[in-house]
Amino acid sequence: MEKQSSKAQTRQRILDEAARVMRETGTEGIGVAALMKRAGLTHGGFYAHFASREELVEEVLKHMFAETDIFKPAQSVTQPAQQLADFIDSYLSEAHRNAPAQGCPLAALVSEVAHLPQPTRQIFAQGFNTMHASLTQLLSELGWAEADALASSMMAEMIGALALARACPDAEQASLMLQRSRAALKQRTLEVAA
User: Fold this and answer.
1) Is 186 in contact with 85 (CB distance < 8 Å)?
2) Cα dist. 177→70, 166, 168, 171, 182 in Å?
3) Is the residue at 143 inside a domain?
4) What's the CA gap between 187 and 189, in Å, rounded?
5) Based on the domain organization, do 48 and 124 belong to the same domain?
6) pLDDT, tens digit, 9 for 90 and up, residues 99-126
7) Number of domains in the chain
8) Same domain membership, residue 37 and residue 76
9) What integer pLDDT is reported at residue 136 of this predicted model?
10) H-run or E-run covering 63
């Protein structure tokens, strides 16, 4: 029993480290030998937990979506309008931009997912759909008749703005991009709640 628990802990350690690497450098950044070294494990031990690198990428993506709650900063507030404002502020914050290793997997991986195998893309789509459903629910509570369409548009803008801000070498321009997106989204989505 203890050996099984230790194996589960080791697998978790590999997943945690791989999630950090994948958010920072994408799926191409996950080399088995380097990953295992970062996790303080031997290269050969990898195959006791995963059949292949491709399986690791799929499992890491599931792990990232399971551990990520992009709505967490807004959950302490009970008013839907304030929840939405807090969510927008948190997602499009400089703190989120500067911490890709702990951030939303959607923004971290959106540019490369189209080039990954279908099973991996399906996991990404499931993560997107879960987050989309939560945002749709919140927008419905605010009275938006087309909450589903608005949630799709908002997610595209937010994920795109965050990904672009991370890619931008000019910190001032990146901050301005996030600030303008926050303001535009709040103006567009919170008017009905006012």
Assistant:
1) yes
2) 20, 10, 10, 10, 9
3) yes
4) 6
5) no
6) 988 889 999 999 999 999 999 999 999 9
7) 2
8) no
9) 96
10) helix 53-67
